[in-house]
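To whoever picks this up:

The nightly regression suite flagged Large ribosomal subunit protein uL6 as changed. Nothing in the input moved, so I suspect the structure step. Input below, exactly as stored in the fixture:
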Amino acid sequence: MSRIGKKPVELPSGVSASVSGQTIEVKGPKGTQSFTATDDVTIAVDDNLVTVTPRGKSKRARQQWGMSRTVISNLVHGVQNTFKKDLEIQGVGYRAQVQGNVLKLNLGLSHDVDFPIPEGITITAAKPTELTVEGHDLQQVGQVASDIRDWRRPEPYKGKGIRYKGEYIFQKEGKKK
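Regenerated output under the current build:
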């Protein structure tokens, strides 16, 4: 039984939602986002509440119930506020800078990495070793942050690489003579 799926999503003032079939569209001050749910759940909008109920008692229906409710909650948050991921770059000579719509990364490779910033995402570099990825779509913000991190994941011996802010990297002991 899903416990998160039972809780209805509350729509704050200035945010509206409409359902057509299995697609819910949420409109707010920062834009419009939509989500198409599977046929395993039913979505209903009453006044300022969005409720999700499962169709049947199958395991898949219960899984989709909680997941759909969480995605709708993220849509409501996204049209009102932004989601944010902070990244830290550690390593000698490793740095990043934003030039127009491109993020330039110097990561100790034989070439500089030019990462095109997707539409709907804002990347800022307050310092050459700190990045902030912001946007209204939680999934897209997380995916872009992960794609940037994949260029140089933190390694366990010296800790060099790109990591999420506050991420702990377990340091291994090197070879002994």
